[in-house]
């Protein structure tokens, strides 16, 4: 496989959110939900970071972390729709970018028993934020849309992470990517 193909695929997936953001799609809950993670840099970076971090882990963490994120995000969305209040949602969303960036930069390989709850906590913030911004969209189709988009972004991050070579230059690239994510997360926290 050529190294450019995963990057091209990631670009096409990210561009699809722009196409869905054109006027006239507001009534389409699925499209609205799908476009939401692409509409905010905080959600976009967090989803890519989950995939990138998972790709650099071993064993079941490679698929369990993104799956945990989506499951916890959907659970929180349902609870938020039912009226449960989640404090500090935006700070949690920004913190997810910061912390995942730091883990990526440090090439941390923590046990799944530690990272799964961490990822789930961040996912709760994302799920509650998605529902807070859903407007009149129906929850089931909207949630299916943002779950699909999140999974696609996780997949893009995972593909990028798997393409980083296990070498000194690959380790530097991973540190730079993680550092950039951490800086962006810090800026989002300060905003």
TrEMBL record:
It comes from the Bacteria. Keywords: Membrane, Signal, Transmembrane, Transmembrane helix. It comes from Niveibacterium microcysteis. This is HupE/UreJ family protein. The chain crosses the membrane at residues 37-55, 62-80, 86-105, 112-132, 138-161. It holds the Pfam family HupE_UreJ. Residues 1-21 form the signal peptide.
């Amino acid at each position: 496989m050529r190294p450019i193909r995963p990057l091209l695929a990631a670009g096409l997936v990210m561009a699809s959110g722009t196409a869905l953001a054109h006027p006239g799609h507001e009534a389409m809950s699925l499209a609205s939900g799908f476009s939401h993670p692409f509409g905010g840099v905080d959600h976009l970076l967090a989803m890519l970071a989950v995939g990138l971090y998972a790709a650099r882990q071993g064993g079941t963490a490679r698929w369990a972390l993104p799956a945990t994120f989506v499951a916890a995000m959907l659970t929180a969305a349902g609870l938020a729709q039912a009226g449960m209040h989640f404090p500090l949602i935006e700070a949690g969303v920004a913190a997810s970018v910061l912390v995942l960036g730091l883990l990526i930069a440090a090439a941390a390989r923590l046990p799944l028993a530690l990272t799964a709850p961490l990822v789930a906590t961040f996912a709760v913030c994302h799920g509650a934020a998605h529902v807070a911004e859903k407007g009149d969209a129906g929850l089931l189709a909207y949630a299916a849309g943002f779950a699909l988009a999140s999974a696609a972004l996780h997949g893009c991050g995972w593909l990028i992470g798997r393409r980083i070579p296990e070498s000194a230059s690959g380790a530097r690239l991973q540190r730079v990517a993680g550092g950039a994510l951490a800086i962006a997360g810090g800026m989002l926290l300060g905003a």
